[in-house]
Amino acid sequence: MQKKDILNLIKFHAEHNEAGFRNEAYSIARFFDQSGDPQLAEYIMALLSGTNTFVPQSSDYDLPFFSKISLVGDALPLPTLIKNDVLGIINSISHNAGINKFLFEGEPGTGKTETVKQIARILERDLYSIDFDSVIDSKLGQTSKNIAAVFQEIRALPDPSKVVISFDEIDAIALDRVNSNDLREMGRVTSSVLKGLDGLTDGVVLIATTNLFGKFDKALTRRFDSIINFNRYSRDELIDVAESILNELLSKFTFAGRNKRLFRKIVAIMDHIPYPGDLKNIIKTSIAFSDSSSEYDYLRKFYEAVKSDTDDLKKLQDEGFSVREIEILTGVSKSQVSRELKA
Questions:
Q1: Which residue range or ranges hold the AAA+ ATPase domain (predicted)?
Q2: Are 276 and 241 spatial neighbours (Cβ–Cβ below 8 Å)?
Q3: Number of H helices, E strands in the chain
């Protein structure tokens, strides 16, 4: 839905244009229905039909320091070790064993935030993420007061079994106190977080993420029931992850052809294979920017993005590419590639 839809609605109402008003309202109802909010769509339709017996139901909670996160999207592929740990988290939550505070640590792009979303999807819960911009305050002592209010909001949830609470990039408030310029203020902030975590009921599921685990306050790490390291990708696993990402994207870009062998060879010769988040961006951009009339143009763009040189035919041969693969990566015909390599 765009601004013009609302403006049209007001315009038609002001002009007493009943037909235009109803058509615009029906269009807005369809938007909400297609966006995953059928209840609001039904409510609008009921109002338009004059049978307003429907009261929209909402599971949204009034959490001023939190934002509700959309769960639309696909989870990043995970290596076996991390996947097993995540399954363990889901099992522990399902068992109501009182293990409910988890910390995901690892470099950017390793899949921490997307995994939090995936856990919420599997558990069929809403996901709320803390807005640290609204928590952190320049006034002395106000940040710790805000943190106390944050945990009060969590404790006041009428049904915590329907939500997952996310502290994404918790290092914004959890770095080691000895590295702070204001030890007293940082001490108050950390103490508020410690007290808040200690006071959580077993029904609350809280998952925090951090890229700076090495600088994390050690007293805080002990408050988490489980800490999952997301840096555990082997090189072979990253190649498999890259292929999995490619297969997912190719289902959306139907013009692109499939050449798994060539794609894996390109990934395998990379000096450093990025973590899944960055890897997905590179692959997606290569496909999106490719010529739709050339089914393998995305492979050439992908090679250029990771190796930056497709002009040296001998280099391509030394990297293990066949004459046909060199033709795909360079656009030079196989016969010409063969002549130049022999020469």
A1: 98-234
A2: yes
A3: 17, 6
Q: Which amino acid is at 170?
A: I
Which letter does DSSP use for residue 216 in this model? B
| Close Cβ partners of 265 (under 8 Å, ≥ 6 residues apart) | 319, 320, 321, 325
E-assigned strand segments in 124-278: 126-130, 163-167, 206-210, 226-229
Q: Phi/psi at 298 (nearest 5 deg)?
A: -65, -30
pTM of the full structure: 0.73
The residue whose two tokens read 């108050």 is 188
The enclosing H or E element of 67 equals: strand 66-69
| Residue 207 structure tokens | 């998952």
The span from the CA of 334 to the CA of 313, in Å, is 11
Q: Where do the structural domains in the chain lie, given as residue ranges?
A: 3-49, 66-229, 235-342
Name 274's Cβ contacts closer than 8 Å, sequence gap at least 6.
109, 238, 282
| Cα(17)–Cα(106) distance, integer angstroms | 57
Residue 262 one-letter amino acid: L
What would be the CATH architecture of the domain defined by 66-229?
3-Layer(aba) Sandwich (3.40)
Ramachandran assignment for 330, one of left (phi > 0), alpha (psi -120 to 50 degrees), beta (any other): alpha
**Structure token pair of residue 323:** 């004459």
Q: Is 113 helix (H, G, I), strand (E, B) or coil?
A: helix
* pLDDT tens per residue across span 77-124: 888 999 999 999 999 998 888 889 999 999 999 999 999 999 999 999
| Residue type for position 208 | A
Q: Which of 46-55, 56-65, 178-187, 329-338 has the highest mean pLDDT?
A: 329-338
* Burial degree of 343 (CB within 10 A; 0-12, 13-18, 19+): exposed
